[in-house]
Design a protein that fits this description.
911 residues, 14-stranded parallel beta sheet, alpha/beta, 11 helices, single chain, 57 strands
């Protein structure tokens, strides 16, 4: 009974306390916004730009404690936090940025302790200095918010600040960082991408904050003179240190190894040198160590096995790191990410290196001299998600241990020495892998019945054969170039897929495919890059290719296609590369091609096109490669080619997605075979830098338009094998980037302009078989070219031709005999004069001294007597030894003969 009374008495008290607790815990329950602070916030909002209306809830009629991004005290109702950082950083955050100005109305928020304005866009405006007067702030995040100018030193007045992040505002800089030492309670400091190079004492200032736990100084333009002077760092509690992307060019300073609490250390993208110090072994709490892209040399530290907490170890891009992989690497049981790609490591990788690495997910051993040597029945302790072993010795057998891996997303085994057939289990096992890169091996097999499901698949430069494989709708990139696939293309192209295809890149060039192109291209609307070159395909281009409205690059080179280029292709509005060379296309060049202003490459070489070169081609301001050679084009060269601005010197312009398709960790690059300097060469990585015009082997007539010589960025110009007339303009001297010039087999006349000596990059020249006359210009490298470059011009004279010019012959006949030689080669006469005088001085410099100085003469002949005596004794001893050994010499006779010879030599010297 007493207990029930107690319960009845306590129940109201419990309910009261519960309601009080719920009120205190819910910031929106009180609804007692301070009116002064509400109006201050509205003035603050008014100064901002908010295109996405993120602050739409900030209304005079609403309680400000209920506004979006505002937090109030549960007790006083005063504003204590503003969470105005962009919440959409994982998507297209630029649509949701706040901008404008930061109003000093914030000063009226007396109890504001948290202010976050990160990931917004304040257009390079300076950080307001009045923020240094907001003494209640404990958390200030202005990172990635578009601020610029000098960082205000007034921020040093925020003595209670625990978190300060000003990082990744690329326009910010610091003159003096002394003020940072006043923030004695600071735990997190982010200054990444702020220019600190003006303050050489930044490290001393930062090291005076003993409470500091995290420090980000990445990409701050710091260099060696800023760290070497410090012997001891006071921030020994530091757990996070990022010094990546700076200009450090020294060995790792010793003070860094005193930071024994470090868990995360990033020194990547510098020029740190020396060996990787064994002192790293004393950082026992280290979990993340990033030393990639530096200049370290020598072996990997042997104390690596002591770092038992290590989860992330990256040494990529240190080409001077050598030696073998330490076996105690296998003791790092927590290791998840390991990278040594791009080093000079050698030796074998075996099971012992992975003994306890059960958590390993990422392994990077690309571009090393390491060899994978494991048993064929090895079952690794790990489940990899990412393996990059390009140019690492994996073969010759296909790695059977891959079958044990169930979590792969990315598999890179290109140039890994595999000479084998893909095992039966492989394609089913690999169907869930996102990217597979096997190019440049000798892998074989018939995959005609395989339905490929990988997002990116590169099997190029192998030995696969049979008919083409089938594709699922998930495939985005398929590169099977340089194999031995045969049959027709229709089974691949005309197979209906239930879902919309995602295929963007299709490269099946350099195979043995035959037949015609089926009219089924409408099933592949996402295609951006098609390369079917170097096969045995024939027929006409089907009209359905015009449905590929996203097409950027289209290559059918070196096949047997014929007919006109279909007008349906003009629907490809973003086409940037078209290569139809080495086919049998005919008709005129379609006007839509030369009106497609996105075009960067036009390659119609070796076809049967006729008619003129459309003048509309001059509108293609991004055009870099124009190859119309070996057709039947006639009339004159357009005079407006100087309007092609990309062929003038200057910055590289254009949408290079035309030539390159980026996807995830790799990219697909277009290649083009161009005939430059008289030979066919493949251009791939450098294709974007090539600027060339080739109109050779046509029926063009008229003069070379002077406007073409204003293309100062042009590297190769070939107008040979036409019917061009007139003179070569002196303006050719302005083509300062020209490396190859071929004007041979035309009807050009007049002299070679002297301005050609300005073409200092010219390495290939052919002016043969024209009607040029006069002296070949002298100077620079013109005379270094072969005479073949000038043959067939009967009136040309001068070096490098053997034919002298008339004025040279006339001067030669008027010159006295012998004078010409001495005038042309005066150094020969001086050579004989010098030789004679040298002989006279040298001879009498020695003999004269002996003749006139009696003491020197006696000393000289005494020296000769000593030499005679020494030689005599040595010879006698040697002869005696020979006589005793072989018994064929008469020592007495030899002794007498030796004396006679030496006496004769002495007499000759005396006389």
């Amino acid at each position: 009974m007493r207990n029930s009374r107690l319960v009845i008495l306590l129940f109201p008290l419990v309910c009261f306390l519960s309601s009080i607790i719920s009120i205190l815990c819910d910031p929106n329950t009180l609804g007692v916004c301070n009116e002064k602070e509400k109006h201050a916030l509205l003035r603050f909002k008014q100064a901002l730009s908010d295109p996405a209306d993120r602050l739409s809830s900030w209304s005079i009629n609403e309680d400000c404690c209920r506004w979006e991004a505002v937090r109030c005290s549960n007790v006083s109702g005063r504003v204590v936090e503003l969470h105005l950082g962009n919440p959409y950083v994982d998507s297209d955050y630029t649509n949701f940025i706040l901008g404008g100005e930061i109003s000093p109305a914030l000063l009226e928020l007396e109890f504001l302790s948290y202010l976050n304005l990160s990931w917004n866009g304040f257009g390079g405006r300076p950080i307001p200095s009045f923020l240094g007067s907001m003494g209640s702030l404990r958390y200030l995040d202005l990172s990635s918010a578009g601020f610029g100018g000098i960082v205000p030193h007034q921020l040093g007045n925020l003595s209670t600040l625990h978190h300060l992040d000003l990082g990744h505002n690329n326009g910010l800089y610091v003159e003096n960082l002394d003020w940072i030492s006043h923030l004695s309670f600071l735990k997190n400091l982010g200054l990444g991408s702020i220019d600190l190079h003006r303050d050489v004492h930044w490290l001393e200032s930062v090291s005076m904050i003993p409470s500091l736990l995290e420090l980000d100084l990445s990409d701050c333009r710091l260099d060696r003179k800023m760290v070497s002077s410090l012997r001891y760092a006071n921030f020994t509690s530091l757990t996070f240190l990022a010094l990546s992307k700076n200009d450090f060019n020294l060995e790792i300073p010793n003070w860094l190894f005193n930071l024994t609490s470090l868990a995360i250390l990033s020194l990547s993208d510098n020029e740190f040198k020396g060996q990787i110090s064994e002192s790293f072994g004393q950082l026992k709490y280290l979990e993340y160590l990033d030393l990639r892209r530096n200049s370290f040399h020598g072996p990997i530290l042997t104390s690596i096995g002591n770092l038992s907490s290590l989860r992330y170890l990256v040494l990529d891009g240190n080409p001077l790191i050598n030696g073998t992989l330490p076996t105690n690497l296998g003791l790092l049981s927590n290791l998840e990410y390991f990278g040594v790609g791009g080093t000079s490591l050698t030796g074998n990788i075996s099971e012992v290196h992975f003994t306890t690495l059960s958590k390993l997910k990422v392994l990077l051993i690309y571009e090393t001299s390491l060899s994978f040597h494991v048993n064929s029945n090895w079952t690794p302790p790990f489940q990899l998600e990412y393996l990059e072993a390009d140019s690492c010795k994996i073969g010759p057998k296909f790695p059977a241990w891959l079958k044990t891996q169930k979590s792969f997303s990315y598999l890179f085994l290109s140039s890994s020495g595999i000479v084998d057939t893909t095992p039966n289990w492989f394609w089913k096992w690999a169907s869930s892998i996102q990217e597979i890169h096997f190019f440049d091996n000798q892998i074989s097999g018939d995959i005609s019945k395989v339905v490929l499901n990988n997002t990116v698949l590169d099997l190029s430069s192998n030995r696969f054969s049979g008919q083409l494989p089938l594709l699922s709708s998930n495939v985005v990139v398929l590169n099977i170039a340089n194999n031995s696939f045969s049959g027709q293309i229709s089974p691949l192209i005309c197979r209906k897929i239930n879902e919309r295809s995602k295929l963007k890149v299709l490269d099946i060039s350099n195979n043995a495919l035959s037949g015609e192109l089926s009219d089924c291209w409408m099933h592949w609307p996402s295609l951006t890059h098609i390369n079917l070159g170097s096969n045995d395909l024939s027929g006409e281009i089907p009209d359905s290719m015009g449905s590929l409205v996203a097409l950027k690059a289209f290559s059918l080179r070196k096949n047997s296609f014929h007919g006109d280029i279909p007008s349906s292709l003009q629907n490809c509005k973003v086409l940037g590369l078209i290569s139809l060379s080495d086919n049998k296309f005919s008709g005129i060049i379609p006007r839509w091609i030369v009106e497609r202003t996105t075009l960067m490459v036009i390659d119609l070489r070796s076809n049967k096109f006729m008619g003129d070169i459309p003048p509309q081609i001059c509108q293609l301001s991004y055009l870099r490669v124009l190859d119309l050679a070996n057709n039947s084009l006639s009339r004159t060269i357009p005079k407006c080619l100087n309007n092609i601005s990309s062929m003038t010197a200057g910055p590289i312009e254009g949408d290079f997605n035309v030539l390159e398709a980026d996807y995830y960790y790799e990219s697909y690059m277009e290649s083009l075979i161009l005939n430059i300097k008289g030979r066919d060469s493949e251009y791939k990585e450098i294709l974007r830098y090539v600027k060339t015009i080739d109109l050779s082997s046509n029926n063009l007539s008229g003069s070379i338009p002077v406007e073409i010589f204003s293309l100062s960025g042009l590297q190769s110009l070939n107008l040979s094998h036409n019917h061009l007339t007139g003179m070569i303009s002196v303006e050719i001297g302005g083509m300062e980037c020209l490396e190859s010039l071929d004007l041979s087999r035309n009807n050009l006349s007049g002299e070679i302009p002297q301005t050609m000596v300005n073409l200092t990059f010219l390495g290939d020249l052919n002016l043969s078989y024209n009607n040029l006359s006069g002296r070949i210009p002298s100077g620079t490298q013109i005379q270094t070219f072969s005479p073949l470059s000038f043959f067939g011009n009967a009136e040309l004279c001068g070096a490098p031709l053997s034919k002298n010019c008339p004025e040279d012959e006339e001067e030669e006949t008027q010159r006295p005999i012998g004078v010409g030689e001495n005038r042309e080669f005066p150094e020969i006469a001086w050579f004989y004069i010098g030789m004679g005088s040298g002989f006279f001085v040298g001879l009498w410099g020695v003999c004269g001294c002996l003749f006139f100085n009696k003491a020197w003469r006696h000393a000289y002949f005494q020296c000769l007597d000593d030499i005679k005596d020494s030689a005599y004794v040595a010879i006698v001893i040697k002869l005696k030894w020979l006589h005793q050994k072989f018994g064929i010499y008469n020592a007495e006779d030899d002794h007498r003969e030796c004396i006679n010879k030496l006496s004769g030599m002495a007499k000759e010297c005396v006389h």
